Amino acid sequence: MPPEETALDRKIALVTGASRGIGKATALQLAEAGFDVVVTARTLREGERYEHSWTVKKSDTSAMPGSLEITAAAIEKAGRRALPVRMDLLDPESIEAAVARAREVFGRIDVLINNAVTTGPGSLDTFLDTPLEVIERYLRGNVLAGAQITQLVLPELLERKQGAVVNVTSYAGQYDPPAPAGRGGWSFAYAGSKAAFHRLAGVLAVEHRDSGVRFFTLDPGTVATEMMQRNQKAQNLEDFEAVPMDVPAAAIRWLATAPEASDLSGQTLHAYKLCKAHALVPGWPPEP
Q1: Domains in the chain, please, with CATH?
Q2: Is 50 a catalytic residue?
Q3: What is the pLDDT of residues 187-222, one digit of tens each?
């Protein structure tokens, strides 16, 4: 940390799902805004393999690009401290351990970004093709995991009367698909779990009105993540226009840091609208 900065001056963010995609871009944006960042995900080191097929009909454990170590190195290159911690949304003990490790190293958490999402078979399978245990896994990873992290972090934000929680949601959790799953649409397992998590920030904003803590639900839009670019053709999503990862990342940074964002606490916000309204990403959107 900079020599003139004391421990009390530091701001600490915890970003889940930060080995790649929106989470990695967000962690770097927050580092540029002066945060030290705890980054969590399953992939600690480059080349680790996990199941990420979009259908129960086949397996795909090929390695995805990115890792927590790579994200942490980029944060430190930006002049901030980084703490990479392996965390699995389907493992409650790993969630508790990750939050405990963050406090052990940094002493506090000021901003929580619930960005991580369960991936794997079931995300683009039709309802009758989706076993109930797969639906249960999505509810565990996309609802209960975020709720657990928030319950672990929120009390200290309320005690200090400041801080922010940003929950990254999905269009799929708000609207019906344009086509069946796997043919341009999405599954009930994914959409249902994101719909449930979509309600959390609004409930918290009502329960803790005037607490000094801000709560946001952010719809990132269709984003050109590594996973999206890799699977777009296979998932019949080629007609979806994707925005750069910096768009949701810049929107999250603004929500976490801008004083005027307090007026939006409890609302569902759209990343591309925030970025356009406040010119958060230089050169985007491109001139027509």
Answers
A1: 11-278 (3.40.50.720)
A2: no
A3: 999 999 999 999 999 999 999 999 999 999 999 987
